[in-house]
Design a protein that fits this description.
With 242 residues, this protein is α+β, with helices and mostly antiparallel strands. It is built from nine helices and six strands, in the order αααααααββββαββα.
Length: 242
């Protein structure tokens, strides 16, 4: 096979790993050398598959092989075989994307190669947990994550806020705004994807997140109430007598 015909399997391999849901979220984190390796590897798989099919057609259906070759406008050896890898790449991507759900593959990629922050956000989305995000600006959001970062592509997340507030100089989190009344929904579950709720989504750059944690409403309320009682007792002790 002439060397210039190897370009088609390489293009097919690159298309396969960058368009198929099963591969693309993982390869987006690969460095250039690893991406080249994966492209060559997938192109080799496709080329080997087409060569096997070519051999089977020549062996069992020689008339079909002759008919195709005679009607193909270019007579360079192995040109049909080489270009067929592009067809197989399109077919594999189309069928694979029907089988493998894009969101599930994104979650799988985050679990495999994501950062600790990405894995925590994925857990919050999968199990419908509230997260508490503290930003570098000392702004604080508590809410449901509605959009996960795509490894290697998107460094943004979307959060549907339940509470917002700020962090004091003493690093204490103060929540000042409650959005639940606007949603008129069960606070233990994300609102439906309609109406005002989804107009209040916040887009946050991952690099702006200073800290994050799973947020437990009951636990926070207990801590907040206990702290309020303690502060009240402290003030009453130091209150000057008349």
């Amino acid at each position: 096979m002439p060397w210039n015909l190897f370009i088609f399997p390489l293009v097919a391999g690159y298309f396969w790993i960058t368009r198929a849901h099963y591969f693309k979220f993982t390869q987006q984190r690969l460095d250039k050398q690893r991406l080249i390796y994966e492209t060559v590897l997938k192109g080799t798989y496709l080329g080997a598959t087409v060569l096997v099919i070519r051999f089977l057609i020549i062996h069992f259906r020689p008339q079909l092989y002759t008919w195709v070759v005679e009607r193909f406008p270019y007579k360079q050896p192995y040109l049909i075989t080489s270009t067929s890898t592009l067809v197989f790449a399109f077919v594999f991507v189309f069928l694979g994307n029907k089988i493998f759900n894009e969101r599930k593959q994104l979650i799988k990629a985050i679990q495999k190669i994501g950062s600790l922050l990405e894995k925590m956000l994925e857990d919050a989305v999968t199990n419908e947990k509230l997260v508490l995000l503290t930003l570098k600006s000392d702004k604080v959001y508590v809410g449901w994550v509605t959009f996960l970062p795509i490894p290697g592509v998107s460094r943004y997340i979307k959060i549907l806020p339940v509470y917002s507030g700020f962090r004091t100089k003493e690093k204490e989190v103060i929540l000042t705004t409650n959005y639940l009344n606007l949603y008129n929904e069960n606070p233990s579950q994300p609102p439906k994807e309609t109406g005002l709720a989804w107009e209040l989504e916040k887009v946050i750059l991952m690099d702006e997140i200073l800290s994050s944690s799973i947020f437990n409403t009951d636990f926070y309320e207990k801590i907040y109430l206990q702290k309020t009682k303690t502060q009240a007792k402290t003030k009453s002790k130091h209150k000057p007598e008349n």
